[in-house]
Amino acid sequence: MSFNLATILSEGAKAHPDKPLIHFLGTRWTYQQVDELSGRVADGLRALGLQRDQKVAVQLPNVPEFIFAYFAVLKAGLVMVPLAPLLRAPEVAYHLENSDAAVLITYDGIADEALKGAAGLPDLQVFVLAGPKGRPAPEGTRSFGELYPPATPGIPDSTPLDGTGLPDRGPGRIEQTEADDTAVLLYTSGTTGHPKGAELSHFQLLMACSIGGETFGYRSDDIAVLVLPLFHIFGLSSTLNVTVRFGGSAVLLPRFEVGAVLDALERHRCTIFCGVPTMFIALLNADLTGRDVSSLSRCVSGGAAIPGEVVRGFEEKFSPAVILEAYGLSETVALATINPSAHRRRALSVGRPAWGVDIRILDAQGRDLPSGPAYVGELVIRGLTVMKRYYKNPEATAEAVHDGWLHTGDLGYRDEDGYFFIVDRKKDLIIRGGFNVYPREIEEVLHAHPAVEEASVVGKPDQRLGEEVVAFVTLRNGAETTPGELTAHCRERLARYKFPRQVIIMPALPKGSSGKVLKAELRARL
User: Fold this and answer.
1) What is the pTM of this model?
2) CA 125 to CA 435: how far, in whole Å?
3) Which end of the chain is more exposed for a tag (fewer CB within 10 A), N or C?
């Protein structure tokens, strides 16, 4: 079956050509403009002589050109390889070499590090997007503007690019790819060993955004805040693809800043916000004096477990907005379970399996476990959105996928009504004196303390007990407490083997580019 994911954009442009698709720093792009601009870049990629299925690495921050490049790569029948802008040179080199990238599109603010990483790949073609100052492309590279053939006077190589006054060239053709062809090669976070490239097909990406959008009741009049990084599957699929698939609009923000998010909510009357728990915590502690954020109706939290206290506080402060927790991985196109609505959700649950997805809970011997919180095991997933494979890594694929079931490394249980609860990552489990300690449970207790803003719990090697429980916390503005008070708070609410023997108060917790707390860095501090 032939299908290309770029069809969601071209169909949107036919249905409502003049409707805004992207708002960015005071400029807007309609569906027709995004369709045309991505078509121009697709023609530019074809002019390079690239063959179908070759890889194009795109290392851009949240700017409109990322979206133009994304749909251009799809239209040209190529494979998109999103790269985090903050990768260092050795990491860039690994991703480019491992993915067999033929082209790198990067940004002049990070070009020095990117070019160091690309130095050992003489056949790689590099295009650099100039920032606001419009500096020329570095030696040995070409300007991003050259991907708009033929060279047309007046096409700026800067951010933003809106196509105003350019002759109408149309949206360009869309290559007839097969539905199972790889559309995006998305690298995992690489918490153990080198990152692995998950191959996601056109059909899988379509199903993920279609199922997710339908379940959350996405409408064509919705306006989403797009602040999650586009190189991450949560931002790419659950926000951008869903918006385009259902004909909505998005306010694109370069990075997460509380003031910028609140400004977007007010100025554009945004209705949807997707984020990770640290974003909701920051918004919960924001000053809303004089602001009207009442347009916000639905929020989606993913990427990590969100504390119940944060959900309750946020919904009270941002009423009538509700937070629906979901669960997924890069390997499942960010979609596995969903809380279907505010009326049918379960507290602290990530919801029920999405349409077309099956989930089992297995013990250490691979046996199915019954329902109930006493039966914690590993979640394994089968369904429409599970990746094709890890690129050029049959060993890792065989280790992760058994008989069509993806082994997630996440621990949880299922209740009698089929709702799933994530207890923790398998690698984050703490075994203290032979007892299993789940960090999320302790983090929930710490978040209930009025002085605590964020909390993260890890295990510390201990000669006598195997591991000891250590908590890292940050405090709310103006709040005061001591490690001893926080330990006592936990001791009163947790079994003796669970409460943290050491509490470390920090000015901020280390976070990755997607906003998740980096527990590996916290362990390294111990």
Assistant:
1) 0.86
2) 54
3) N
